[in-house]
Amino acid sequence: NANSPPGPRPHGILGLVPAQPGPILLLLALVSTSVWNLRWTPCTRQGSSAPAPGSGSTIFALSSGQGRCGIAVIRTSGPASGQALRSLTAPRDLPPARKACLRLLRDPLSAEPLDRALVLWFPGPQSFTGEDCAEFHVHGGPAVVSGVLQALGSVPGLRPAEAGEFTRRAFAHGKLSLTEVEGLADLIHAETEAQRRQALRQLDGELGHLCQGWAETLTRALAHVEAYIDFGEDDNLEEGVLDQANSEVRELEVALGAHLRDARRGQRLRSGAHVVVAGPPNAGKSSLVNLLSRKPVSIVSPEPGTTRDVLETPVDLAGFPALLSDTAGLREGVGPVEQEGVRRAQKRLEQADLILAVLDASDLTSSSSHDFLHTVVIPTVTGSASASSQRLLLVLNKSDLLPSQGPDLHPDLPRYLLLSCLTGEGLDGLLEALRKELAALCGDPSTGPPLLTRARHQHHLQGCLDALGHYKPAKDLALAAEALRVARGHLARLTGRGGTEEILDIIFRDFCVGK
Ligand SMILES: Nc1nc2c(ncn2[C@@H]2O[C@H](COP(=O)(O)OP(=O)(O)OP(=O)(O)O)[C@@H](O)[C@H]2O)c(=O)[nH]1
Predict the structure, then answer these.
(1) Which of 174, 220, 421, 513 is the most buried (most CB within 10 A)?
(2) What is the mean pLDDT of residues 304-321?
(3) Which residues form the TrmE-type G domain (predicted)?
(4) pLDDT digits 0-9 by tens, 333-383
């Protein structure tokens, strides 16, 4: 990675580092931005604004989903957006900024009516992209949409947008930081409530603001250190500024360390926690997977050993994303095919964030129940298993088969939940327990500090922390300043913002340098 900073030490296998999110920008779906455009302070002037620097062309695209629908949103961004509106609409004047107006749309070449549509005019820079933007809310039939797209293509200076180009322009014009762009991408792809909440928080800039605050601390510290290098410890500098810089850097190290310890949570929230359903044959594992995923993912049969391979399905579990795996029943003395299934089940168990251990409540004394209890359940619950950070929920299934006095309890049985996949009894309790476990695994996006949702975030925070490990001003001020620069570079790359000129500003603003 040519963009990597000259950091003190590379990390990752063989020095490989996660790439900057160029592909994210490119792949980001085209987003409907009426809401976005309305977020920016209304502009009092009307008419075209000056073209934003660096943007020559005007782009257009269908921003709502493909296919037949009630309303489709087509939008443009760039200096010719006003011209596009005037060319297609009758009357030909621009509507007032940010006000939806009903207009007849015509093909500018043939004058053929295309639709009666709502149009909106967002003069830059107060728009989603920072450029002049227009939106056409047309009827969502394919012929209308293709007619309007063709008409826009015939306006001089307009061309179809590339994937993600609107967002890319918003980033280029400083409307979104990189972490906000990632939040926007996550929001578009959010499938569960928790993912949506997390993405919205990131889109609102929480992670960016946190990093920005850290970067400011480093900038201040760097300014202090550089002032010492340039002016020395004489009367020209306020007393104690270097000590203050040192303590701020040490506090920052502690904060970064705490966030890095939490890093897996955010990534789990983005890509789903690994929840593995395991247990002896015939306990009802496949029935539970089908119940939780609300679809027939696995074959259910009274014959023990039906599931032979690992079956994985993405599910929304109590508002959290999870990859739910059904596994072969764990038992010994079986044929080679089932044996391979057992081996795969055991491997998948090792990778689980959360084990949903299923036992047949009416068969707790069988040897397979006993073995599973002593080889998987108890070691995991007591923390003596190899993957000691794993969590486990014990489910006693088939409660409908129990006598009224309850299960024939095993003396070693840890805390359990009673369930009947057949009747659904106990499902609410299980979902509530799952919600708590997954909130602990993924972090609660409604509260707490912003989560690091991508390997890229983790990489840059780790890089920042590693660099601060080389901050030793008592030994060598020049090397200490370099460590701060490297650390700051990582934070700047995380948010996609950051400059060097602000250090000079601070030196002359916050210091009493010279008399
Ligand atoms: N009475 C009762 N039967 C159940 C319940 N859950 C599952 N069963 C039955 O138990 C049998 C085994 O269920 P499965 O879901 O296939 O069990 P499994 O653990 O996936 O089995 P293997 O694939 O052999 O490991 C089937 O006949 C199910 O209908 C339940 O809550 N009550």
Answers:
(1) 421
(2) 84
(3) 272-439
(4) 667 777 777 778 788 888 889 999 999 998 888 888 888 888 888 888 877
Given ligand 1 and candidates 300, 339, 360, which is best to mutate, with the most ligand atoms within 8 Å of its CB? 300
Q: Choose among 182, 106, 175, 191: nearest CA to 147.
A: 106
CA-to-CA distance for 227 and 513, rounded, in angstroms?
8
pLDDT-based confidence at 310, cuts 50/70/90?
A: confident
Domain ranges for the chain, please list them.
Answer: 30-162, 206-262+452-510, 268-442
DSSP string of 203-237?
HTTHHHHHHHHHHHHHHHHHHHHHHHHHH-SSTTS
Say how far apart CA 40 and CA 90 lie, in whole Å: 27
Residue with tokens 């980033």: 171
Q: Which residue has the higher pLDDT, 414 or 393?
A: 393
Q: Answer whether residue 198 shows pLDDT above 50.
A: yes
Burial of 239 (0-12, 13-18, 19+ CB in 10 A): exposed
Pocket flag, ligand 1, residue 426 (CB < 6 Å): no
Taking a C-beta distance cutoff of 8 angstroms, is the pair 310, 351 a contact?
no
Q: Which of 82, 89, 83, 77 is nearest to 148 (CA)?
A: 89
Rounded to an integer, what distance in angstroms lies between the CA atom of residue 255 and that of residue 378? Answer: 35
Q: Which ligand 1 atom minimizes the distance to the CA of 282?
A: 21
Residue 401, ligand 1, Cβ within 6 A = yes
The pairing of beta strand 89-90 with beta strand 354-360: unpaired
CATH code assigned to 268-442: 3.40.50.300
145 in Cβ contact with 71 (< 8 Å) = no
Cα(364)–Cα(496) distance, rounded to whole angstroms? 57
Superfamily covering domain 206-262+452-510: tRNA modification GTPase MnmE domain 2 (1.20.120.430)
Tell me the chain's radius of gyration from C-alpha atoms.
30
Better-predicted residue by pLDDT, 91 or 42: 91
pLDDT value of position 77: 94
Question: Is the Cβ–Cβ distance between 286 and 326 less than 8 Å?
Answer: yes
From the CA of 327, give the closest atom in ligand 1.
25
pLDDT tens per residue across span 148-172: 999 999 999 999 888 778 888 888 8
Region 42-51 average pLDDT: 32
The three-state secondary structure class of 180 is helix
Does residue 397's CB lie within 6 angstroms of at least one atom of ligand 1?
Answer: yes
Could you confirm whether domain 30-162 is CATH 3.30.1360.120? yes
Burial of 111 (0-12, 13-18, 19+ CB in 10 A): exposed
No. of helices (H) and no. of strands (E), the chain: 18, 13
pLDDT at residue 27, as a whole number: 35
Task: Please state the atom number of ligand 1 nearest to the C-alpha of residue 401.
Answer: 1
CB-based contacts of 494: which residues, under 8 Å, 6+ apart?
Answer: 178, 179, 211, 456, 457, 460, 461
